Amino acid sequence: MLTPTLTWTTAAPAVSAAFLSSVVEVVEAFTIVLAVATVRGWRPAALGAMAGLGLLVLIVVAFGPLLGLVPLWGLQLAIGILLLLFGMRWLRKAILRQAGVIALHDEELAFAAETAELREQAQRQAARLDWLAGLASFKAVVLEGLEVVFIVIAVGAGRGLVVPASLGALAACALVLGMGLFVHKPLARVPENTLKFAVGVMLSAFGVFWVGEGLGVPWPGEDLAILAIAILFLVSALAAVRTLRRPAVEAVS
Amino acid sequence: MTAIMSLLRELAGLFVDDGRLALSVLAVVALAAILSLMPGASLAAGAVLVLGCLGALIANVVKAARR
Questions:
Q1: Band of residue A126 on the pLDDT scale cut at 50, 70, 90
Q2: Which residue, A5, A42, A12, A6, is CA-closest to A164?
Q3: Complex confidence, ipTM
């Protein structure tokens, strides 16, 4: 049973982390599916995307119940380590991009690169193109979707918040797909690096917290420690950006 | 086979982008785990986790920026 403290201090960061990270991932997957649809039509794009979603559902259905068999401390430790690796990888990249050390990710460039690659493949092997286009769509949905599934499980499983975190992710999917279908072009205006920065901070904080819980660390303030750790990560990351800032480099796909 | 290997590589890439950062994080976790086994040092293990991860991240981005 959740206490009011848990609801406010753990559920909100879990739901917002799932929502924000899902926005980033769905935008990236949508760019590739749209590129496939532009070059080869909606049929292979939609078939690939549906097959990818089907595989994701299968993975969740097959592996989801196994989580209940793992002792809580083991689950917290394993998920915490994976979250730390995942979150700090995002945060590292976001800091370097924000500081202008590496180029920002650009959805329009990603779209252009994907369509150019598909057109090149069309010239080489036209007969297999629908299959290749569908595969590109499938791969994008599976890889980006796996990240969403992992984040939802990671931020939700330790405290029984998988359902609220899933709702956060689903809301993000509905928002991005709705906007994407409406504007019918890559969602280049989504402040992707800012989102990655925020999510990297939150996931790293969750990672440190869960690893500590798994090791039996008596965090002062209990769940409130997540917020304190997140603030420490945020302040350090912003200080690193400020110290390392240099003229921006050109965007990459 | 190539497609499967590429998919596996991309899956590994979800967690490990820079090997040095991943190794530093694992080293911090191992140190905190050892500390947590010592009587009365579990809070210190938490401090090592927080400060160690922050230190690993900052050292890594500073190095990357100098490269």
A1: low
A2: A12
A3: 0.86
Q: Is A121 part of the contact surface with chain B (CB cutoff 8 Å)? A: no
Q: What is the pTM of this model?
A: 0.74
pLDDT above 80 for A122: no
- Nearest Cβ partner of A236 from B7, B58, B65? B58
In three state form, how does the secondary structure of chain A look? Answer: CCCHHHHHHHHHHHHHHHHHHHHHHHHHHHHHHHHHHHHHCHHHHHHHHHHHHHHHHHHHHHHHHHHHHCCHHHHHHHHHHHHHHHHHHHHHHHHHHHCCCCCCECHHHHHHHHHHHHHHHHHHCHHHHHHHHHHHHHHHHHHHHHHHHHHHHHHHHHHCCHHHHHHHHHHHHHHHHHHHHHHCCCCCCCCHHHHHHHHHHHHHHHHHHHHHHHHCCCCCCCCHHHHHHHHHHHHHHHHHHHHHCCCCCCCEC
Pick the residue from chain B with its C-alpha nearest to A88. B57
Each residue of A235-247: pLDDT tens digit?
Answer: 999 999 999 887 6
